[in-house]
UniProtKB/TrEMBL annotation:
Protein name: 5-oxoprolinase
Gene Ontology cellular-component terms listed: cytosol
Coiled coil: none
Residues annotated as domain Hydantoinase A/oxoprolinase: 237-530
Domain of life from the UniProt record: Eukaryota
PANTHER family the record matches: 5-OXOPROLINASE, 5-OXOPROLINASE RELATED
Amino acid sequence: MTSRDAEKFRFAIDRGGTFTDVYAEVPNGHGGHERIVRKLLSEDPDNYSDAPREGIRRILQEFTAEAHPPEKPVDCSRIESIRMGTTVATNALLERKGTPCALLVTEGFADLLEIGNQTRPAIFDVKIRRPDTLYTKVVEVPERVILARETDYLPGQVIKGRTGEEVRVERPLDKTTLKARLQRLLDEGISSVAILLMHSYIYGDHEKEVADLCRSMGFAHVSASSEVLAMAKAVARGHTVVADAYLTPTIRTYLKNFCDGFDRALTETDDTRLLFMQSDGGLARMQDFTGHKAILSGPAGGVVGFAKTTARALGSDVAVVGFDMGGTSTDVSRYDPRVGFEHIYETVTAGVTVQAPQLDITTVAAGGGSLLTYEHGLLCVGPESAGAHPGPVCYRKKGGKLAVTDANLVLGRLLPSHFPRIFGETQDQPLDTEASRRALRKLSVEMGLGDDIDACAAGFIRVANEAMCRPIRNMTQMRGYDVRTHVLACFGGAGGQHACAMARALGIDTVFVHRFSGVLSAFGLALADEVVDKQVPAAQKWQREGPWRGTLGELEKEAITALEKAGHRGNIHTKYFLNMRYSGTDTSIMTAVEDSDNGDYQEAFERAYRREYGFLMTGRELLIDDIRVRARAVKEDGFEFTRPPSTEEYEAEHDELASVYFEGVGRVEKTPVFLEPNLKPGAVVRGPAIIVQSTGTIVVEPDCTAKVNGDGDYVID
């Protein structure tokens, strides 16, 4: 880092469904940086058009003593880097608000993705529902490529593909006919296309020709399956390329609008580094940030954050469950430092199959903004959310709806006096506790509880907690892991209010809450590494010294070169993968080793296969479907490899008292409240208690003890 860089700001921003979290490293004037965090509503159209840009503008104005008017582009001369995670792609997919696109598919396969693989999500449902498709039009491409083996009786040129397999071009591409069909698409206003031709993962020339033709005709966006991700299985590959064509233009529009709020230096020079979080937990440059890689951009930062902070605080031999409770939803994931991040390579998100590396994250529709309703004698939490606009009842906005936040507020788990005063018409009012009480009282009467709104609110909190425990059990117990041996790493704006109750329900003894838990997704972006993935199809038989070794070396060189071109020198780590399966099966496992020369892929595959399926096919031939290399430019701060400084424990003194309701105890009228600035490393806080952080609230339940470690993080037993 140069002396000039020491005078610049670094931003890491997580734009969620309800709040946008901003983590910034601000120059302190002595060659170092001070860490600060800010939180603002993701949508506030009356006051700003883009929350991440507004967060940057406010911090620059606050710490530079310079004017940064909202109506003018933000000056980038003081900004070293901007890292962002966004839910734009996720929301577009969930709400089906992406860009209208067309599917270009080999003639005769127009209904391929509608038929799919005939998997029925609810096998006993008598009413079969076909899965939705994202494309609005289908154009059949006059061409046909088939596998050459056992087709000597057919006409056509035989060509060796990229995997070494031979294909027969039974029907060459008819560009004249195709051009007329594409023109009709343009005339109908469709400007984004997804290209899926049979066997293009082996022979991609026809797809390239079609893509070039589309671009020459003026299509704004073209996604070709052989370029997006060249893997076998046409149905999954087709859904992936369609998702890319559907989402990428929407992402590009958002990125353009974001960049338009800054001066031209952001996009025309390398002085300010702009990176985006991908679904696999790695950062990518703006031009490489595409639709199929962005679906889990939002929650991925949180996974990186809790993984690196718990490894630093608790050591590298403790498995952790991440619990990220935000305003709209809750994300759960698992991390074992001995294994690394858990990735999955084919997922179904919002009914759409996506074939791409993603962190293994499960989302449940229960968050601080989840609506509370009473239907047919049942207490229901979510899946609908109040969002940021109008938000919960306590937000003082017209049309506000009763939500989990209102229940926590009434129970005393949120303290209005320590919550940002950003509500009301003038944006300077506190949370409206009385409005929440009135709304809950109305529901309490309907439930037959009379005026006992504490019982009503606590009941909804129990339902919300159980909804969030369920996916944690599925991710651990259902896969053979004992959930009780894990640590619960709790973060997100609403997570600290539920952490102890969740741990108790799961049988977990230890809860870890980072000092930036309320904005840990943003902090995780600051800790993340820039990543380059390279992958090619293989179609090889497994041999310990097979041709796959040469391919791995080529991919490693390509990946490292890409990172070096991005400005990284040294400290580049690579990981090597073979996508392997037993001959005669269609279930492959992406098998990883750290050392491509000495790692035993067969042993790693068999270990993973036995854990997943409980048996091995001894004697069955192994095949390699794909070869992959993942290179990452590791941050040089060594954050997760050092331990917090040791401290001497002391009993903390509370700052004030509050009336708080606790499950199994009732309302404790004089609950000690501790303010984070007054809790020094070594402080011990015994429950029942409330700890107020700058970005969240931690509820320390009775019989629980919180200790502040040398970094200022909280370990609750």
